[in-house]
Design a protein that fits this description.
Blueprint (H helix, E strand, L loop, with lengths): L1 H22 L20 E13 L1 E9 L2 H4 L5 H8 L2 E6 L2 E15 L2 E13 L3 E6 L5 E3 L2 E28 L2 E24 L4 E26 L2 E23 L10 E23 L1
Antiparallel strand pairs: 1-4, 1-12, 2-3, 2-12, 4-5, 5-8, 6-8, 7-8, 8-9, 9-10, 10-11, 11-12
Amino acid sequence: MKRLVFAAAPVSVCLTVSAMAADLGVRPMPVKAAPAPIVFSWTGFYVGGNAGWIGSENSISNDVIPTPDAALGVVSGVSEGLAALSTGSVSAGHKSGFIGGGQVGYNFQINNWLAGVEADFQGIGGLKGSGSITTPSGGTVVVGVPVTSTLSGTTDTRWLGTVRGRLGFLPTPTVLLYGTGGLAYGDVTASTSLAQSGTNGFAGGGAGSFSETRAGWTAGGGIEWMFVQNWTAKVEYLHYDLGTGSFSWTALGTPTSPFFSGVVYQTETTSVHFRGDIVRAGLNYKF
């Protein structure tokens, strides 16, 4: 009998403790809830910076109106022959350099689609290019006289800005594939010069230039990655075209030339087409 009493005692104690715990309102430890998933949103304003490579494909063409031979008092064919030597195209803009600046924009996301607008402004370095066309060694004969002629040109784009629309698709919440296009504008310069001389002592030439801000278009695309909330990194390609600018100038005989001394013997019109390509990386902060 004593054994039964001692065996039942632990059970009785446990039941008594459990009952006391219930009376005291003790609850089991709660289970921690899983953290809420991070929601990536692309909607909002952003600012950032960019840097990369720019390559120009500028081209120069020169057209000439010769002063009539009769007005110059020379035999037929002289002014036309000199004009032919200074007419043509000069490859002066196949250069590459550095481009860098900043951008500001706004995105609006609808499900997996994004629409937005972006404006940027960049400085450019190393894009100045030059070239020339020269008659073959020994010169080209103009009415029996060998003439040497060199037409030279330079171009440069010193800064560039764009205002573009963007339309993109989000294959994942953090990756954006987009196309972009719109207005491009930039500060451009160009110059040309001509030097001609003949074995009969003739020497002449001239030069002209211009500098202006031109507007055109740009188009391209890129990929952008939201690597943490509010921060994105992108790689982008753009082609830009600022159109064609032109300027006029004259060629005249040098003061020491026995022919056409101080006289305009032809009028030049130089046209320059400014265009190129950009590959750059950028970093943005979204508010």
